[in-house]
Amino acid sequence: MNVISSPHAHGARSVGRVMLLVMLALVPATLAGFWRFGWPAAYLWLVTILSCVIAEAMATRVRRIDTGRALGDGSAVLTGWLLALSLPPWAPWWIGAVGGAFAIIITKHLFGGLGQNLFNPAMAARVMLLISFPVEMTQWLLPTPEALPGAIDALTITFGAGVPDAMSSASLLGHIKSEASKGVLLDQSLIGHWAAGSFSVGERQGSLGETSALLLLGGGLFLVLQRIITLRIPLAFLVGVAVPAAIASTVAPDNYLGPLAHVLSGGVMLAAFFIATDYVTSPSTPLGQWIFGLGCGLLTWIIRTWGAYPEGIAFAVMLMNATAPLIDQYTRPRIFGRGRDGRSLNPAESR
Amino acid sequence: MGSLSIPPLVRLTRLLNRWGVHPEGRKQLTADTDLALVPLPDRLVLPLSQHIGAPSRPVVKAGERVLRNQLIAEAQGAISAPIHAPTSGTILSIAEVPVPHISGLPGPAILLEPDGADEALPAVETDPFSLSGEEISRRVAQAGIVGMGGATFPSAVKLSLGQKTRIPTLILNGGECEPYLTCDDRLMRDRADQVIDGARIILHAMAGSEVLIGVENNKPEAIAALETAATGFPEIKVVAVPSRYPMGSEKQLIEWITRREIPAGGRPADIGVMVQNVGTAAAIHRAIRFGEPLTRRIVTVSGGAVRTPRNLEVRVGTPLSALLDFCGGLKENAARYVMGGPMMGLSVASLDIPVIKGSGGLLALLSEEVASQGKDDASSGPCIRCASCVGACPIGLMPLDMAALIKSGDLAASVDIGLKDCIGCGTCSYVCPSKIPLVHYFNHAKGELAAQDRAKVKQDAIKQLAEARTARMEQEAREKAEAAARRKAEREKAKADAAAKAAAKKAAAEQTPASEESPA
Predict the structure, then answer these.
(1) Is residue B385 less than 8 Å (CB to CB) from chain A?
(2) Cα separation values, A83 from A45, A266, A337, Å
(3) What is the rounded distance in angstroms from the CA atom of residue A94 to the CA atom of residue A132?
(4) ipTM for this model
(5) Least CB–CB distance from B384: residue in A114, A285, A336
(6) pLDDT of B149-208, one tens digit each?
(7) DSSP annotation of B415
(8) Does A340 touch chain B (CB under 8 A)?
């Protein structure tokens, strides 16, 4: 006789559906990236995702896990997608290929596969690429939708020569960091480089998917409304970046970038809503999620301000990933009928 | 309606900690259908275990004729409940038959063949308020009344507890948060005065001061009916609570209404509250006013596969198949039969199983209603740590971590993070995108721990016996040795005495000749 455990109802989306909705939320920002950076960006996106999918198929085959099911849940595609969005849009194809394979094989499967990885695969891959291939990983270009190469010419960029020197330029964060090292004050170095309006719609140098802050915000809010993520991590992340930036830039405006420039530049929006909210590598407790988000934001600001790299999100997220299990352990919710210390409530007090 | 004034801080905490889920209610299938009594089946099956505690002991023999309301099995032990004949007829046998049990295994039951006369014992009417609290408890115990919400804890035990410690507040549970089920809703609408009278009797028995009836706000008709019936009784308040699963869980309902939490491992009495289901209150009303034992209850027959879902009044012991037949049978193949609600109910393989005192529902569910949850373990995927279960758990547990620990065999660690606080409501499994059967893990682990505890008790007993035996044998050996030593000493003393005597004699004999031999 077959005894089946309750409940006899189920009310959740499947994992595959969750991943699909996250991808859907990324579509507007991704399309905007393609529009601004052209065919090379689309090729890179495709190569990165393909690399992740192939790596997932190989890893699951070797580990004797159901490959069809593993690919069906869409997690590998999403990893590739997020990694692609964090790469320089005209990076050569092998950057995406190596990064995708690293993300899936090293960061995910060597740690035990879906649900077991300590670090965010996309961020770990980005850090690996940044450290190993600093030149390819810092070639930014100003988006020029009106003067982009055609589909065929673009092939020579992605699969050949890379970014022409003439088009390469520094991102805002890189620019002010190098200017600051020359002793140029912020109000000088910002001239012609920073405008909140153009930054929020993506008219700036940056990674493929990080430039359109508003579209990313929209996608993130869509996920919140769909109850796929909560506002805890994104909000804490933004606060963690913006509050110290606001304080520092008020105290010393010549040396510190303001909160709006911080929030709108680099990958803050992408990371706050799509990267740091990764289920597997963030804490599971509500309080833990607030702490995690704040930590990501604060570390991002610290690394950007005093670190050797102009952009610090990937490092910040990875550092906080490492602390997530610990955060979980110390922020467990209070159990009903027990005090914070885990001891049973004293009836005399609650009566 | 009783309005609760809630301090802003409590409001904020409740906003931040929105435990529970909102499963599709599907209550509209049956909520507005009239009650009907299911005709007598060919055979009633009355399991001896219809309650929490010791099974009852039959007091009838095969072939004996019994009348409706006659005692057929008596309570056995401190926590138990008697069983009465739901109609007149002949006892066929006492046998092992399929019964509603989580194990799916058969259990002992009294089989009764109705004679159709439905002849009852003479009814005795009593004024409840002339009785003492102890007498009311005694009569409730005699009537075999158990918690009708599904927990089936003997009600008299709760009542007696109320007489031992002062409990000011009675909460009637009209939450009925399980989807599909509308039996309590129907009862509150149709028999509100019985519920209110039952509440007054319980309050009188426990010498309490207020009754709060918690009803989910998706049952406005029930709330209105209760309010009308409670007019003139200022001690009774009807309190609308949000419709959210598992609001009908005792802990959650008490907390929501009184903002007091039952301490872990404690009882409602610890915080001055007694909780009874609305159905139990109605049963107590009948038992005390008219001397009627508990032999009937309201059952919701529902689910997408049932032709005409409705609420039925059913004699305890009626096989589920009779209920389904009365509702026109199936219109589609049922993927699963469930006794109780879909969230915590029992899946049953056979419709020969009878309705018992705690059965609130019979569901015949289509496969799209049960989704694929729990169909087979292979359909569940790896945990992606989405923490949906953490947010949904009404107790504040971390089901994902508990399940991981149980999976790795570390039951002690899962207890450390709250396994024993789990109420088994199924909310975590319901929201899991990977369809991990979390509750199944927890129930398994709890069973395993209980078995370990039992084994430990047994082992300890054996160890004690062995130790006692060793001690006894040592004692015996010691006593033997002591006795031997004593005898030896006596012998030696005697010898020495004799020697001394002999010496004295000799000495005397040396002076005067011996006349006697000294004994050896």
Answers:
(1) yes
(2) 8, 14, 44
(3) 13
(4) 0.89
(5) A114
(6) 888 999 999 998 878 888 999 999 999 999 999 999 999 999 999 999 999 999 999 999
(7) H
(8) no
